[in-house]
Every structure is written in C-alpha cells, then in structure tokens.
Amino acid sequence: MTNVFDRAGGKVWDAFSGTTPSLSGPLPDPSTDAGWSGDHPKRVGFFTDTSVCIGCKACEVACKEWNLVPDDGTDASDLYRLTGMSYDNTGDLGASSWRHVAFIEDVRPHGTATPAHGGQQTGFLPAGLPAVHGGGNGHTPRDAATAPPDGGTVDLLALLPDSGAHGQQTPDDERDVRWLMSSDVCKHCTHAGCLDVCPTGALFRTEFGTVVVQDDICNGCGYCVPSCPYGVIDVRESDGGAHKCTLCYDRLGEGLEPACAKACPTNSIQFGDLDELQAAADARLAELHGRGVQEARLYGRDPDDGVGGDGAFFLLLDEPEVYGLPPDPIVTTRDLPEMWRNAALTAVGLGAAVVAAFWKGGRR
Amino acid sequence: MGARTWLGEWPIFRQATGPDPLGRGAAVQSPRTQALGPRTADADEVVKSVCPYCAVGCGQNIYVRDGRVTQIEGDPDSPVSRGRLCPKGSASTSLVTSPTRVTTVRYRRPYATEWEDLDLDTAVDMIADRVIDARRRGWQDTDDDGRVLRRTLGFSSLGGATLDNEENYLIKKLFMALGAIQVENQARI
Amino acid sequence: MAEAHPVGFQWVMEAKRRGATVIHVDPRFTRTSAVADLHVPFRAGADIAFLGGLIHYVLDNELDFREYVTTFTNAAEIVGEDFADADATGIFSGYDPETGRYDPISWQMEGGGYEAPAAGMRDHWEPELREHHAAHASDTAGGAGEQAHAPADPPRDDTLQHPRCVYQVLKRHYARYTPEAVASVCGMSTEQFLEVARAITRNSGRDRTTAWVYSVGWTHHTVGAQYIRAAAILQTLLGNMGRPGGGILALRGHASIQGSTDIPTLYDLLPGYIPMPNAHLHEDLRSFLDADAAKTGFWGHMDAYLVSLLKAWWGDAATPENDFAFGYLPRLTGNHGTYGIVRDQIDKKTFGYFLVGENPAIGHANGKMQRLGLANLEWLVVRDMQMIESASFWKDGPEIETGELRTEDIGTEVFFLPCANHTEKSGTFTNTQRLLQWRREAVHPPGDARSELHFYFHLGKRIREKLAGSTDERDRPLLDLTWDYPTFGVHAEPDPESVLAEINGFDADGDHLSSYTQMKADGSTSAGCWIYTGVFKDGVNQADRRTPGSEQDWVAAEWGWAWPANRRTLYNRASADADGRPWSERKAYVWWDAEQGSWTGHDVPDFEATKPPSYRPPEGAHAEDALSGTDAFIMQADGKAWLYAPTGLADGPMPTHYEPVESPVANLLHDQQDNPAREDIDRAWNRLNPAMSETYPYVFLTYRLTEHHTAGGMSRFLGYLSELQPEFFCEVSPALARERGLEHLGWATLISARTAIEARVVVTERMKPLRIGDHVVHQIGLPYHWGSNGLSQGDPANDLLGVVMDPNVHIQESKVATCDIQPGRRPRGPALLEFVESYRRKAGVEPGGIT
C-alpha cells in the first residue's frame, strides 16, 4: 500500500493502530483498508454497459423481489403516477429504489447523428444511430435543453418552432431522437462518504469491498444522506432507516450473483470481480471506439477520480450529466483527514504545551 | 456468552484493538449481518418451472420452503433464457403470492348488486347443471337443409393461451363430446 | 421485440455483437429501435406495400437466390390462363361483389386440379362452391373421386421466362410496388426503403441468411394472413427458409399460445391442425378426408392422424364400422370465431360462457361489445387469479357509469372460480419456438384454487354422471368418451402426465408411440395430437428433459422437446442444395451423408432420413412417397414453397396492399381501398369510422409495454410492475400536441365511432408525423393494459377499436384505426354517450347503441 495518500496526505492514524486507512485517492483494496484480513475475497462490483441496455427494468423488479423493497404503493404519497420523464417512472435512486433505469430522449437536428453504438459498421448502412428521422435537413445546433443535467423531463413543446400545422412541413421531421437507457445503482465507492460519516457503524465496508447498511444498527440519523456525492442513499419514511443497494450482500456469501445482474436480459449489468470487470469494460470501450462510437466512455472506472473509483461503474454514450450523473463526484469526506490532521497537530501542540507546562512544573 | 466473548463482539473493542480503527468494516459488522445468507439457501426444494407470461419460455427455479414459494429466479440451465428474466418474469414471486389474489369462490346471483360466497363443490355442480341445460336449449341436430350438425350453440369458452397443453386438451375433448363448437382463445386475437 | 420479449431479445443483442445488422421497422420508436442499427418509421397498416416493395426490388434486380428458388419453390410452374391479376383495380379474378368473396378456381395452375394446400383445403362449407370445385377438379384432372385431388404436375419453365410462370406473374403483380411508390405509401424516404432493401439482399444467399421477426403488429389487420404471406414470399425468394439464421419468426405473447393453437381451443381446428368438419350432406370420414386431405406430402396420412385422434377420444367406441366415431364430431357452418360468438351473446342466441385466463372486457377489440356480450349471458364462469374486469363488469364496467346498463337489470349469473397458478400444477407450455417444456408442481394451490385440468376433468365427470343412462343419441359422444385419468392428492387432481401420454399416443400393444409415422388409419393406434407424438417417446416425458444449455451444442436438442419429432428448425432440408450439400460451410445445418445413406447434421432432419436427394417419385405415388428428394416443404402437397398460392387464401393468391378499413389516406397502389373480402359486423355497437375522415383524422395503434402483460390480470395487480408504468397514457408527437393543444402529462380524450376514452399525454419526439403524398399523418400510440381494477387503473384502449376482420383467420384489425384527440378529460355518465354520438353525426356515421 504505497503512494496511496498522495492526495489526502494523511497518515495520522498510523500512530493509533499501525494500519493505513484512507478517505480519498486510489485504493486498490478497500476491504483491507477497512480491517478485513488479507484472505478476504476479491473486490466485486457492477459494470453496467448502457450501450446494450434495453430499458426493460428487470433489474428494478428483481432487486425489489429479492430485497423485499417496498413499491410506490407502500411508501409514496402520490400513488402510481407518471413522472413524465419518458418511460422512467422511478425518478431516482432512493431508499426504496436501489436500481433506477433512466430513459433519456436525446434530440438532435437531423444529419448530426452520431454513429450507432453497438452494431457493426456494415459499409452499406450509413453510420447513423438508430433514430427516427424524416427527410428534412435542419441545421440548428443541438439544444442543450434536451439534455437536462438531471436527466429528467424535457419540455419538448418549448423546442418547437412556430409551425407544424396540418398538412405542412413538420419540424419533427428535422430532428433525430436517440433513446438512451441506463440502469443506475449505488456506486459502492472506493471512498464512501456515507460510510465515513455514519456515526453508528450501520454502514460498513464488507469483505467484498462493497458498502452496506446494517438495518439492525441504523438509527435513521440521516447523516449519510447528504454525504453521498451521487444522491443515492436515503431514509425510508415507513421504517425510518437508511437504505440503498447492498450489492446483494446476503447472496454474495453463497456465491450467488446479485439479483439485478442475474435477471438482466441483455447482460447490460455485469457482476464480477472488479478487476475483471474493469478489463472487460476497457475492451468493450475499445471495441466501440473501433466501430466509430467515439462518444462511448467509462464512468466511475478511474481510481484517480474524486471517490477513488467506483465499485459500480458504467459505460455511457454521452456526458454523465445527460444520465443525471455528477460529472466529477468527490467524496464528501475527502478533506476530513486534512482537517483532522490539523486538528490533531493542534491537539498535539496543545498537549505538548500542557506536558511542557507540567514538565516545567515538575521541575519546580 | 462469556464476558470475554461479549467484549470481543463489542464494536468499539474491535475497532480499538483490530485492523479497522475507523470502524468502517470488519469491526462494526453486527452478528445479524454476519449471519446473513440468501433465503434460497434453506429452501426445502428447488422446483424447475417455466415463466407464465410471454411465449419465450424462460426457465424458472421455484424456491419452496414449508409449502410456500419464497423466491422465483431464472434457471441458468435453460438454453432459452440462460437464467435471465424480464421485469414481469422477475415479478413472478409477487404474482404467485399476491395479497389481492382471490382464493375462494365468488358468486353473483342474477340481478344482484354484490358478490356472495359459495362452496366450490356446489358451484361445480351448479355449473354442470347449467351446461346440460344450455347444451339442450342450444342443440341443433340438422340445419334447414337437413345437413347434420350434431352440435350445440348454447355455451362457449374463451381462453387457453395461458393454460397448459394438457388443460387445453381436456377442454377441447370435453367440448367436442358435448357438441360445443364455440371454443376460442387468445390465438384468434 | 425488446419491448414484449426482452429475454428472447438477448439473442438479437448477441447476434448484433457478433456483427449482425439489426433493422427495426415499426411505426413507433421503441426500446427495440433504441438499440437497433437502423429504425425505419412508417405508417401503420402499410406493411404489404413495404414487403411488396422489397419483393419488387428482389425481382426487378434479379437478386433472388436462383438455385434455391428453382429447387424448392413453385416459381417455374405455369399459372392457368383464367387467372387475372389485381393490377390497378386491386381485385383478382373470381371476386363476387355481392357476397364479398372470392372463388379461387381461376387462380389454379395450368392443367392442375383444385389442389389442396398444406394443411387440408380448409373445406368450403357452401355446397355450391364445393360442388363447383369438385366438378372442376374432375374436368381438369380427368378423373373422379380420389384421383380428382391428386395434383397433376403443372407444366414448368425452369428458365422462368414463360409469361405465366409464377416468377413472372409475381414480378408483374409487384411491378407497381416501386421504391418510390412504396416509400410514399409508407411515409418513409426512398433512401430509407433502399437501405433496407440493400441490407436484406446483401445478407441473403449461400453464405448469409436474414431472419424476419414479427408479432401481432402483423396479424392484427384485415389483411393479416397476407402480411405473413408477403414475408414468406420474400424469404423464399432470398433462400432464407429452412436455414439457420433465417425464417419468419412469430413472437407469441402468452406462455402457451402456441400450444393452444397446436392443441386448439379454437373452433375451426382439431388437434394437430386437422380442420374441423363442416356440415355437408352425407358427410362421412372418407368424404371428409377426400375433401380436406392432400393426397401427397405428409398430409397424405391425415387419415391416420384423424383416426388416431378419434381413438384417443372415443376408445373402443370408435370402430371401423362406425367410421371411428367421426360422426360424433360436431359440424361447423361458417365462422364461429370469438367475435361471432360475442355477437350471438348480445343477441341472446347463446347462454353460457367460460372465461379461463382471459379478460376480453379489456384485452379484446371493442370492449363495449365484449361487455355487452357478458351482460346478455345467462351464466358466466370466470377462472382467474385476480378479480378481473370481465368478472366484475356488472358492478363497475364503463356502461354502468354511462347508464347504458344497470346492475339491477343485468341477469348474468357469475361464478368466479379461483385458479391455480403456474407453480401450483404440473404440465407443459409450448413456447414460441414450438418447444414443449414441462413444469413441475412446486406448491399446492390455496383455498378453492384448482388447476384447469382439475376443473374440466371433474366438471366432465359430473356431467357424465348426471347424464349416465341416457339413451339420447346426442349423449353418446359424452358417455363413450375416454375420461378416466388417474388422480392423486386430497383434491383428486388428474395426473397431467397421463394426459400428455394420451396426447402422445399408444400403439396396438399399449406402448407409447415414438413417432407419428407409426400411426395407422385402421384404428390400431391412438394419439390426441399427432404433431406432439414423440413427446413421450420411450415412455419418457421428453418435455421434462433439462440437460443444461452449457452442456450442449447451440441447437440444445436435449432441453425440452420441440414438435414435430424434436426438430428445432422446420423444413431444414432446404439448408442443403439439390444434391444435399450444405449451401456453404458457414451455413451448414442438415445435409446428405452419401456414405451412410442418410440425412444428418446439427438438427433432426425434417425429411425422411434415408430418402436420397436423387429420389424421384414413381407414377401414382402416395403421401411422402410422391415427393422427390428435393421437395423440402414436406407438408405441402407438392413439396414446394409457394410463391403464388393457388388455394388456401380467401383474399387473393398474392399479397396486395389494401389500406386499413379506417385509414386517413387513399390507396395509392390500387383502386380498391381496403380488403374486398374482409369480414364486418354491422351493428350499432360496432360503428366504423369512415376512411379519410376529417372527423377522425388521426391514426392510433395499440401495443404492449415491457412492464405489463396483455389485459393486465397478471401485472396491474402487482405493485412492482404497476409502479413502473402506473397510468394509461397516449404517446403523441410534439407537432400533434401543438396542433391539438395537448400538454405533456395533461389529459387527453380520444374519440372514435365506438366511444371516447381518456389518457395521460406523453409528448415525445419518438412519435413522428409522416408525409403520405401531400398529407401529413399523425400517429398516436396507445398501450392497452388498463382497466378499472387493480393497483394501476385507467381506461381500456381497446374500447376505442371497432371490429373488422381478416377473412382467412377472422382476426380483428386492432393494430391500426383512426380517432380524434382533444385536450382534457372525457365527459362522464350519459354525457359521454352524447359526446360520442355528436362525433358520429358529424362524421356521417349511423347512430350507436347497445342493441
């Protein structure tokens, strides 16, 4: 475990226990960092390849069936209502939504289509993305409003020019639509803010490197909620506890894969050892780039990012913001060691002064 | 539980003495968490089945404990589905354990405004009587030109696409023997 | 496919990853479009124009797989001189405008008799027509009786140049289906059309195959059967049938909807696609077989299949002396399909109704018609898991709200009997690939819930007991019925394996049959469904085989059992050339092994195992012996794939584009606007929107969502599914929203000549207006899962539909119709009726009503 504290720069706890826990920066083995012995299992995670996601939401249902997570009828004040965000009626991740499939209807002027994201370049088909398009040839630039930062609803009517009367050229002909789907989930961060701020020890790092809430310990204080840079964890009204994806901790011990990954029809959600998933993701990215899908990118793959990389990471076909993901998440406790070190130095200084005072006093 | 054991399980003790000084991992794992396992592990049996929704025919494993379905998951052995299920197939446990499922006979008298209870055996007997009566009243030996019809139009049946082949077979066989030609199902739709 | 069959779609995604091109042709941009290489939007109801355009492209550019076409199809055969093509008029020879029916006699091949198509000629019940055909057959074939139906080989021109050879007839028929013309009909650009045309032709041939996948988007039309025919012609021309990666794949929507067609709970079929007998004077087994069974090909053994069925049903009571109880079967006199039944219910001509796992009040076209049928019954038995709308219509149906019906006036006696679910009984489903998979019972059904097997077995027993001792001749079939299955458990559940064994059949020694080729017409064998024979081969429940896929090759022949004979790809003889060699190494599937003197390969050959490619039938040969070693389509009387169908279809020998009955535009390809042979129900509760109506200017189409299942009985009652698609909505384009003032997430009212319904508005760029000629056509999407019961509720989309039907299969046109759409919620109570009536008045439609 070398060079792991470059950014946080703190080894203030060495004196306390002789280990080297960390709160930010790359960290190959968060389980050992959290006190699991050396023979603990390899770190596992999810690689969600959104380029093959068909938005079926099997992951959402399989998750709820396995984990007995309440449906909207149990917990929401507004029962069974459309959100208006395309086919997404889950809205976001939360205490009762541990998987969330986002649907983004990405509208662009016709002719500015980007290459297909999964298919082979056939040579005889244009490199057009799967898109509805008519015969028009609009030249307006892509409207930023079509890709809201929250990945949410788009005021499509507001985009329309003043035309479209019956029997006339319709502006719809001039635009292509791309339908992006992505199954979001807790990222099981290398540096998990939720865990680091949890005062009760309810949130803990498992031997698999995942981050799990222990229902029998959580007192619902909610400190974890604002500490998540992704807005994942939340407190459930009905039982007062904080909840989020456990990466099916109860299944992992028996060698079972998480329910969502098992159900996923197109293998968009892949579960496995994180290092192998990372290799698979790198290969998939290279494959897509090779096919001309330059917009493909990995998200949460980089151990140098603000959370030390994610245990659940993604292949996206657009900017993270398009999917409602923060572009540059930073663990909320990143600066904590620095603060604590300063505090500790102060304390040591103070203590030294006191000791010095006693010492001096003793010399009297 | 001896004092030493008790102390050993106390998170603060483990945190202070073990390799997890911040209490973020092994030190704070509760006994309940430690004991966690999949509820499928203690199933009395795992029964091979097939998803009841669409016609892809995905394999399902039904986990049963104490005579109740505790979980339904995709069957990885199936070359049709390779263990995967769609949202509907994934909701199969909810389907078969639904709290709104009707499990007793409901009966509505002609012109009544509410349901009543009815004994199953009585219901089947009443239905048998109605079949015999409707069959008789709808019977046609021949048409106007004297062509043999040997049939009844007194009653009909709709459904079968969600049923088993063996069930459809009995329906068709019984209806043919009754002379009832009006048997239809979703395949016409 | 990604929407309604997501797990099946994994194979498409896998193919795509391996380099396959995925093209999605659909009026809507769906979850399938989202991951396809190309989405081609087009106008609902224009598929034959589209497919006809592709056929034109293939023929015009001579891109057909010529060796395949000359080997396996009827392309070279000469059509009779009497045939007149539809041409500009859109009407083929033989049409009678008074009856609205075709007499197909003029469609016959030159010198050929009236030839039975693959599965019997489906009999014509009108005696005049039947006699006419018999006479014609006698004349032309120069024989009588049996010989009349032995098809004489029509003259051929293997150069395909004869002006009346099928190839040239086909080419002329589709000459008007130019890329420009069909693009205009479909509302796509010529370039889009050509992209598809180029893609499928380049990807077909010796080394490559293209598959077409469809669902009810192709069958729910007044020309639905011809949609499939058009695809069949295209795929045959391109050599894509009977080969790996080829075919026309129907994605069916219910767990055993294939099984319920094979073992038909359908009025016009007996098990194994044997037609139901129609009423004829002096009909007996022989005359039935003469009329309905092809003499050549494997239907030449229909006598054995039928006699075995009769033996399975009536056992010792079926004897050679009594025609094996053939006379016990009831007779048809025309269309007794589900919509006719409902019409008769409304007219109180039929009194009782069993609904088993079906919710027609929501799931069928014209919901009002369905509910009126239910309300006019004397008794109704509903067997389901949840309280569906078809059981509770008398309490909370839409007609109660409008005042058209009053609960206190509805005399229907309703029995709701809870049923067992799929975990609570053993049995087989037949999936969309014809694969039978056995399910094992996991738990016992709760309370009064029982399997259908239990219900019908005990109902039958009860009826037989009540009629025991009857001397009435009409009760003989019931009392002679073999109805003695072993039972087990406290509820005396019949043993489903004993039923499956009966379906499979037994030989004279009481041993399980292992193949339908063992069947005899002498009454020594029995089998309840000949195509399922083999499922109990060796006394083993083959449907319960579960060798893991990972331990098998890609055909996975040891998982379940596929009919017939565990063949996974039908007509796979066509995967090899005339000499029995694979068309290419890459596409090798089944081939002739000359050394072994047998067919072999990855699959069970769909051909007689030892018939060499060089075999030529002797004069007068019968059944399969009459087919040569290159006649791959063994169920056809002539062993050929038919590019031109001289018999078997009620609306023409070649698919022709007709507009939907409710179309916003005129037919640009033919004078005839819509299918001239379609079937209507002209009643006050089934008014139709006029074509090209200003009052009902928009096209709507109905469909399913991934998160729900059909009429909702298995999804709307579940929280985890309801929350994912919680409300009924309509999908409209921004342009239509603007045109009608519709607000995203606001309410809209949709109006047809049947009724008006309300839905939440979803404005989406995925819906695109199309330009048809100088007309802009707006299409509205309507998922149809909702009703008044369950956790997530809404108006039923199917209430908006009228019923007009395909004349071949009597399936309704529910994938395209017209409506108006207005912002806001629909009127309540009687005001709704006046609102809908005002639209009808404006459109010049006759008044509606409930009688």
Quick rundown:
The complex is a heterotrimer of chains A (364), B (189) and C (851). Chain A is an alpha+beta fold. Chain A is built from ten helices and ten strands.
CATH class wording of the largest domain in chain C? Alpha Beta
Main sheet specs of chain A = 4 strands, mixed
Main-sheet strand order of chain A equals 8-1-10-9
H-E string of chain A: HHEHHEEHEEHEEHHEHEEH
Strand content of chain C: 5-15%
Low-confidence stretches of chain A: 1-19, 114-170
Runs of chain C in which pLDDT lies below 50 for 5 or more consecutive residues are 120-128, 136-150
Task: Supply Rg of chain A.
Answer: 24 Å
Number of domains of chain C: 5
The largest pleated sheet of chain C is described as: 6 strands, mixed
| Proportion of helical residues of chain C | 10-25%
The first-to-last residue Cα distance of chain C is 40 Å
What is the C-alpha radius of gyration of chain C, as a whole number of Å? 27 Å
CATH hierarchy: architecture of the largest domain in chain A: 2-Layer Sandwich
Question: Mean pLDDT of chain A, nearest integer?
Answer: 78
Percentage of β-strand residues of chain A? 5-15%
User: Which percent bin holds the helix content of chain A?
Assistant: 10-25%
Average pLDDT for all residues of chain C:
94
Summed up, the helix count of chain C is 24
